[in-house]
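Appendix C reproduces, verbatim, an entry submitted by the partner laboratory led by Prof. M.T., so that reviewers can inspect both the input and the predicted structure.
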Amino acid sequence: MSLAWRVYRVVAPCLGALAPAARIFASGRERPLWGERLGHSGFDGVCHAWIHAASLGEAGAVPPLVSRLEALQPGARLFLTATTGAGRERLGALQRPVALAPIDSPQAVRRFLAGVRPRRLFVVETELWPHWLLHARRVGLPVAVVSARLAERSVGRYRRLGAEFRELVGGIAAVLCQSAEDARRWLALGARPERTEVVGNLKNDALPRPAPDRAAARRALGLDAGRPLLTLGSVRPGEVRALASAWAALPASVREEWQVAAVARHPRASGELRGEAAEAGQAIALDGLPRAGAWRWDDRPGVLPAYYAAADAAFVGGSLLRRYAGHNPLEPAACGAAVIVGPHHASQLPAMRALERERAVWIAPPGEPLARALAALLGDAAERGRRAARGLAAVERERGATGRAVALLAGWGLWPAE
């Protein structure tokens, strides 16, 4: 038995005992929901499946999954959970019972399973909580991981939990991976080879279609309907400075023609990012139609899809600096925008490969290469149109993962649930 496993098994019950008192440290928004963290959730009647998506991003895969599951089992009764408040809010839009997921203590997990009594657990992407798996095994609850992904660094962390954790992973009934690299890592962690398959990313089935009227989409955001839009999406600390510098290097005629909207990845970093813009001499506008030369700045959660829908070109953030690993470039491509990303996108390799195969994405490091990429796309409507069209073709080829996943679940007797 590994030391890490012994420590975890000792610490988790202690944290479970202390968790009720920790409510006083919760944020004002989360405090009323703290009971959900402790496993105080219930479900009237039969719960055919518990579906868990960690946060806002993973929750994007749940709508197509729910649709496919219900197509095979009409009237299926589902219970949805998320680890974060933003994820819970997004899942709540599906009009199904929803809660924050129980913390990984034996007390909370036992309480949750007794209250909800799910017949299946479908985990979206990665979250592997030892006590979830232990109690699922104890009560005979089949677990499947869908749209499964696993970073190389995570394999090392999980392996420190030793043979006991490897045995739990081996008990997972299905691991349906986003890519061949993910499948390799899951197998290294102990997943059963005969129940590990590559199906693709379920979130791709939830990607939008291009707006029927891009000018109307800009008008709805309070922008100039008649001018093309460059959206700087999911920008993170250290990137606004580089983007402002590249923008300032463009010919004045290009800057006068275009308008820019920047959307922060995390609202809590907005002040730092606005400081970067000020240091670079880039004016910003928090609302209303930006004055000449200013960027629209929007740090509200959930607004990025609207800005991508209105965009003619988009830069996808979290990709200019090595400490980040990129965000999904298929999101703006699905809206018909020409896409630029930085050189660091390790967490988005399947999406990047899909776009690169079609020559539909421009990869540009900070500095002169980024300025050159912006100049080429913003200054050449024909090139921008070609790349946008190729991006749409790449997105269409990436759809279908949910159907493949649910077909495998059905073939292995994991769905429909009795």
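The chain has a mean pLDDT of 94. Additional entries are available on request from the coordinating office.
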